[in-house]
Design a protein that fits this description.
Elements (H helix, E strand, L loop, with lengths): L1 E6 L8 E6 L8 E3 L15 E9 L2 E10 L5 E9 L7 E4 L12 E10 L4 E10 L10 E9 L10 E4 L6 E8 L11 E7 L5 E7 L18 E2 L4 E2 L5 E7 L4 E7 L10 E5 L16 E4 L5 E7 L10 E7 L9 E2 L10 E9 L10 E8 L10 E9 L10 E8 L19 E3 L2 E3 L2 E8 L2 E9 L3 E2 L28
Antiparallel strand pairs: 1-2, 2-3, 3-31, 4-5, 5-6, 6-7, 8-9, 9-10, 10-11, 12-13, 13-14, 15-17, 16-17, 17-18, 18-19, 20-21, 21-22, 22-23, 24-25, 25-26, 26-27, 28-29, 29-32, 30-31
């Protein structure tokens, strides 16, 4: 890797040398936007995993875990912010944990949101108290947000969304209503689940820029699930795609009254999932976005188009109301006979486009061959786009890889790049940070956050998938222990 530029950063962040990997991995140039600088001996360094990102105006904010622990969580939540459309990045940490002057033993599950009414950026995250650091079941995990009023360059102290210090909350996700004509303009919504109560789904609402949060409310039918990603339609209706606690059914629920109450769940589709070879930590969690007209798109990994459920595709379903959903379609990354396996998608939708002209960008991970082992699996990152709402797609592009699984942070649920990633589209360019790893050296990993230099054009193409459904079930039992923390 060669240094590209040095950034002078805000007081809450550290001086960071921006690195780039030019042509070293795949078909595009990559820019490194962060690196784990922690040195505590209890977690794994240098590791960064599980990014979320959001682009608004000329600002791109990404957040992720730094210094992953084997049993769960990280040394802190890192962030990397560009205020000039991705030309330069400022990096730092939220100071969430004892390793950076914060109150928690560990932090995890970063999610980025922007509240246009109050001019506030939010990162929601989980803070863990660990009475027995080696036993995850002893952890008490709170849901919090950190706020930035200067465009994502510095962040305030944690604000409690739900922080009793007695429960194990998990899989938080935050979004805000940014449509000025909506009755609920300026409301922000955080979804999470209570793993202490078998993943009981909870929603909390803020109407003051994340300074205070309302009581946690469940769905009308007391849904058990995880990984919900709320999105807001222009009329103020909140739609939350989510997978059930057994990871067998993709569901959705809605609120049309600003989060005062939440509907029963509606079925999007059953989930048919291929168990990942090599033990990589993956799960068919949803990745959801909405377009300018309020159409909701949800993507996940699924094997229904592969004979014998031999590998996963990334699949897509759409809805205009969050209740009635289209049939499941396959994203044509490669032929169903390719033997490749695709997983951990991050879907982005251009918020200035809609319907049959909606621009979609999809970042994902894949193995070129699903028939591999922990020693032989080769992990890559890819990208594909559509300019007609997912009717047809571009040719796929490899962004990074191959990576060996032993190069990745180790967890009690397998080697890790993240339970989720994200893509955001700004001025026609897709931005989606992801972990890129090289061989460890000197007792340290080398797993850090990168973005495609300058973003990726959303070009679309003529590739369509017309393959029949050939697998009727997953190739493994329903989950009894979904991924946590």
């Amino acid at each position: 890797m060669t240094p590209l530029r040095v950034l002078a950063v805000a007081a809450a962040a550290s001086l960071f040398v921006l690195l780039g990997a030019v042509g070293a991995y795949a078909n595009v140039s990559l820019t490194q936007i962060s690196s784990d600088t922690f040195t505590n001996t209890t977690s794994q360094h240098r590791t960064e995993v599980e990014p979320d990102t959001l682009a608004v105006g000329s600002t791109i904010v990404s957040a992720f875990q730094e210094g992953r622990f084997f049993q769960g969580g990280a040394s802190d939540i890192g962030f990397s912010t560009s205020t000039d459309g991705g030309q330069n990045f400022t990096r730092g940490t939220l100071k969430a944990t004892v390793f950076s002057g914060g109150p928690y033993d560990r932090a995890s599950d970063a999610s980025v949101a922007f509240d246009a009414k109050h001019g506030v950026w939010l990162i929601s995250w989980l803070g863990a108290i660990t009475p027995n650091p080696l036993v995850e079941s002893s952890f008490k995990v709170d849901v919090l947000v950190s706020r930035s009023t200067d465009g994502g360059l510095t962040w305030g102290p944690p604000v409690a969304v739900d922080a009793p210090g007695t429960q194990f909350f998990d899989k938080n996700w935050t979004t805000c209503d940014n449509t000025p004509t909506s009755r609920f303009y300026g409301n922000c919504y955080t979804e999470f689940d209570n793993a202490s109560l078998t993943d009981l789904v909870q929603m909390s609402t803020s109407s003051d820029g994340g300074l205070t949060w309302g009581p946690a409310l469940g769905t009308a039918n007391h849904t058990l699930g995880l990984g919900g990603q709320p999105v807001v339609q222009p009329n103020g209706t909140v739609v939350v795609p989510i997978i059930n606690a057994f990871e067998t059914t993709m569901l959705s629920f809605v609120s049309a009254n600003g989060g005062a109450s939440w509907s029963i769940t509606h079925v999007i589709s059953d989930v048919r999932d291929h168990a990942n070879s090599g033990g990589l930590r993956t799960s068919p969690l949803p990745s959801a976005e909405t377009d300018a007209a309020g159409n909701v798109y949800v993507a996940w990994q699924d094997c229904r188009f592969r004979r014998g459920c031999s590998s996963n595709d990334i699949v897509l379903s759409k809805s205009s109301d969050g209740v009635h959903w289209s049939g499941v379609s396959r994203v044509p990354i490669d032929p169903v006979t390719s033997g490749a396996d695709h997983f951990i998608p991050g879907l982005g939708v251009d918020p200035s486009t809609s319907g049959a002209s909606a621009h979609l960008g999809l970042t994902y991970h894949f193995y070129p061959s699903a028939a591999c082992t922990a020693a032989t699996c080769q992990l890559d990152v890819g990208f594909i786009s559509s300019t007609n709402g997912g009717a047809t797609w571009s040719t796929s592009t490899q962004l990074a890889g191959p990576m060996t699984l032993s190069w990745l942070a180790s967890t009690n649920q397998g080697p890790m790049v993240g339970d989720y990633i994200a893509t955001s589209i700004l001025a026609g360019q897709a931005w989606g940070p992801f972990a890129v790893a090289s061989a460890p050296s000197g007792g340290l990993f080398d797993e850090a956050m990168f973005v495609p230099t300058g973003g990726l054009p959303v070009t679309g193409g003529s590739n369509a998938a017309t393959d029949p459904v050939v697998s009727t079930s997953s190739d493994h039992p329903a989950s009894t222990a979904p991924p946590t923390y």
